[in-house]
Design a protein that fits this description.
The chain is mainly beta. Helix content is about 10%, strand content about 50%. The strands form two sheets. It has an 18-stranded antiparallel β-barrel. Strands 10-13 form a two-stranded antiparallel ribbon. The longest helix is centred in the first third of the chain and has 20 residues. InterPro entries: OM_porin_bac (IPR005318), Porin_dom_sf (IPR023614).
Length: about 425
């Protein structure tokens, strides 16, 4: 009894000491400053097809600086603030942006790269208790169906309430209520801020309770009739919902080997617009549900990882990417960056290998080939039948803080909608990032 009393007194004394030192001033002085310098350069040959979007004929380079500050914890609360500034090097010969018709994206300016301006992209209050984190305010979100993009110098952000909990054993639960999507373009373009009068809601769950099996799924409901008007490559002017479920199983064999499958869908309340042909009533996917699925097998032989995959979209409609950018759960492709596998009636087969060729250098080689039904071409307004992409992805950590990445790709398009016969494109994209 005496020992328990002494132990209790010691714990109370320790707690009181911790509480006494936990002041607001100390929370501020114990804060952490971090940042990143992001230099991106993109160059591509011209092509008659608009299917590759802003990559077409690109010759763009820009740099962005991101500065972030997070306070220390004060009774579980933290404040996070982040600022970013982008500057284009203006290496392109023409800067005009053409968004429709046969000349869409034909200029050398890829506006996703060449963003000039400044914006407060992080400003939120965070609270942690046990293994649950609450955030309210401006923040980055990365989930399969809601995501900011890391593929360009400046980043998007969301004004949202987020709850991320890992309190349940082998389970991660994420809930989001989003009031505003602020694109990186918004530093100079107010129209690239999407306000949701009715908050967009999403629930994501991941579970690993069964040995060797990972299950995950997400549901997203855009309840406002503003829809997703600026999102590429599909857009809609009304509310919609989208979902996906996915499973990955590690096979009990002597070599690392796994199989996986996903199923996804979108239910539109309004018409789906077809990019440059959005004003053509005959070039809309219409309403209703779109479904898609994928299967894969992957593993490792000696020091080389590999993956083979097949995906299929129904003829009914194209899959509306996600809130933010193209869905992150489409890892069943070959790792391609410059073509999409989410159009109506489209199928893809892909192969990817990750060999260890050079010490310290990550190397990835991928190939994807597409087919598309006649109905899918009519519904989607694009022709991806016979298209293919081969890509090399090289990454090297020069120092602990400085890293480089080079993507090289050759794209073949057999686009019946193109105005000419030039249907091949070569592209190079260089990333240099310094974190501090």
């Amino acid at each position: 009894m005496k020992l328990r009393t002494l132990s209790l007194m010691a714990i109370l004394a320790l707690n009181s000491q911790v509480m006494a030192s936990d002041s607001l001033a100390e929370a501020l002085t114990n804060g952490k400053v971090s940042g990143e310098v992001r230099l991106f350069t993109e160059m591509a040959s011209n092509v008659d097809s608009t299917l590759v979007g802003p990559f077409r004929n690109a010759n763009s380079s820009a740099v962005a600086l991101q500065l972030n500050y997070s306070t220390g914890a004060y009774y579980g609360f933290k404040v996070n603030v982040g600022f970013q500034h982008g500057h284009s090097f203006d290496i392109e010969n023409d800067s005009g942006a053409v968004s429709s018709g046969a000349n869409a994206f034909a200029t050398e300016n890829d506006g996703r790269i060449t963003q000039d301006g400044s914006m407060l992209y992080i400003a939120n209050l965070q609270y942690n208790i046990a293994q649950t984190e609450f955030k309210v305010g401006r923040q980055g979100i990365v989930t399969p169906l809601i995501a900011v993009s890391n593929a360009n110098p400046m980043k998007d952000t969301f004004e949202a309430l987020s709850v991320v909990s890992k309190d349940l054993s082998n389970t991660e639960i994420r809930f989001y209520g989003i009031k505003k999507w602020i694109e990186r373009y918004s530093a100079t373009d107010e129209t690239r801020k999407t306000n949701f009068d009715d908050p967009t809601l999403s629930l994501y769950v991941k579970n690993t309770s069964i040995p060797n099996l990972t299950l995950e799924g997400q549901y997203l409901a855009v309840r406002d009739d503003i829809g997703n008007p600026k999102n590429a490559p599909r857009a809609t002017n009304d509310s919609y919902s989208t979902y996906f479920v996915q499973g990955d199983y590690k096979l009990p064999v002597d070599i690392p080997l796994s199989i996986g499958a996903y199923y996804a869908g979108t239910d539109y309340d309004g018409a789906v617009y077809i990019g440059a042909t959005a004003n053509d009533e005959n070039a809309r996917g219409g309403k209703g549900e779109t479904t898609l699925y994928g299967v894969k097998i992957g593993g490792k032989v000696f020091d080389t990882a590999f993956k083979l995959a097949y995906t299929k979209v129904s003829d009914d409609n194209s899959f509306l990417g996600a809130l933010g950018h193209t869905p992150h759960f489409f890892k069943y492709n070959g790792g391609q960056m410059f073509t999409d596998n989410i159009y109506a009636g489209q199928s893809s087969i892909s192969a990817m290998v990750i060999p260890k060729l050079i010490p310290g250098v990550f190397t990835l080689f991928a190939y994807s080939r597409y087919s598309q039904t006649d109905k899918g071409q009519v519904v989607s307004g694009v022709d991806m039948d016979g298209a293919s992409e081969i890509q090399a992805d090289l990454r090297y950590k020069i120092t602990k803080d400085l890293s480089a990445r080079l993507q090289l790709a050759h794209v073949e398009l057999d686009d019946s909608n193109a105005t000419g016969n030039d249907d091949t494109m070569n592209i190079a994209k260089l990333y240099l990032t310094y974190k501090f």
